[in-house]
Amino acid sequence: MAPFNNTMFYPQSFFLTGIPGLERFHVWLSIPFCCLYGIALSGNSMILFVIITEPSLHEPMYYFLSMLSFTDLGLCLSTLITMVGLFWFNAREINFDACIAQMFFIHGFTFMESSVLLLMAFDRFIAICNPLRYTTILTNSRIAKVGMVIVIRGTAALVPLLLLLKRLSFCHSHILHHSYCFHPDVMKLSCSDTKVNSAFGLALGISTAGLDSVFILISYVLIIHSILSIASPEERKKAFSTCISHISAVAIFYIPMISLSLVHRFGKHAPPYVHTVIGNVYLIIPPVMNPIIYSVKTKQIRRAILKIFLPKRI
Question: Which of 44, 87, 93, 179 makes an SS bond possible with 26, Cβ 3.0 to 4.6 Å?
Fold first, then answer.
């Protein structure tokens, strides 16, 4: 590959990175990655299918779970093509406009998933703290409207972010740290002033995922307070057990996302594989683990899935 000069220009393409130092083994390393993608795609598709086809699951809690599965599917599909191309065919190059489009979907589905997790926390809050009004507050029409708000919120804020990115000039190496396009990663390659981009990106992250996480935390403070006021130990245990799946989903979503953000902001001298590993964990692990968690911990989902594969025993 010819070296890049320092002339400012708008790039035709960027170059993705697999696992630094292990390029010769990318075909073999693709096997576990493909298995994880297969689990994520089949698991979330199954969750969506059973919720749509099983009338007993047509309740607010499962509608929110279907939204979570939808966003997880979106995240997987947003990176599947570039991952397969990179690991199987060493297709590292990605067109600049295609890179912008991929960022739109990755960040859009990320913001949507954060919003869905907040809704699920609100669902648990109402179910535990105000159960008598649960069905009157979380009606189907309200859930549909909130779903539309999530989509609009997750996409509208990204338009100015990506337009700001397109105005930048690039004169450094066009080699990215991940097998997909990630906004902070692309922005670092610019030789223009990126203060506005950085400030807007930070503000967008705080006003979406950051604000959502604060409200989730507040919801669980109120939920725990309500649970501790229950006299019966068995009832307390039962109430708390309904939150375990959601708490796990929140943890596996926010911990990798925060870690990746910290690495991009403060890990300039971190080894390249750190960016790669955390970046892959951030996008692959939540879609893989969420259907497993909800299938194992939620009896109704587990029974609906078993009913498909073992209809005579259920």
Answer: 87
In terms of average pLDDT, the best of 193-202, 256-265, 267-276 is 193-202
Closest CA to 122 of 72, 170, 63: 63
Q: How far apart are the first and last CA of the chain?
A: 60
> What tokens does 110 get?
């990320």
Identify any residues that bridge with 14 across adjacent strands, giving them in sequence order: 94
Distance CA(134)–CA(127), nearest Å, equals: 6
CA distances in angstroms from 71 to 16, 43, 117, 244, 296, listed in the order given: 24, 13, 11, 20, 20
Residue type, 290: N
pTM of the model: 0.92
Helices (H), 130-182: 134-137, 140-156, 158-166
For helices 60-89 and 26-53, the axis angle rounded to 10 degrees is: 160
Give Cα 34 distance to the centre of its chain.
18
Buried b / exposed e along 263-288 (16+ C-beta atoms within 10 A): bbeeeeeeeeeebbebbbbbbbbbbb
**Single-letter amino acid, residue 308:** I
Q: What is the rounded distance in angstroms from the CA atom of residue 188 to the CA atom of residue 175?
A: 10
CATH of 19-309, one of 1.20.1070.10, 2.10.109.10, 3.55.50.30, 3.40.50.2020: 1.20.1070.10
